[in-house]
Amino acid sequence: MDLEARKYQFIQELFNIHSESIIDTLERVMKREKEAYQALSAEHKMELDNRLKTYKNNPNDVLDWNDVKNDW
Question: Is residue 37 part of a domain?
Answer without folding.
Answer: yes
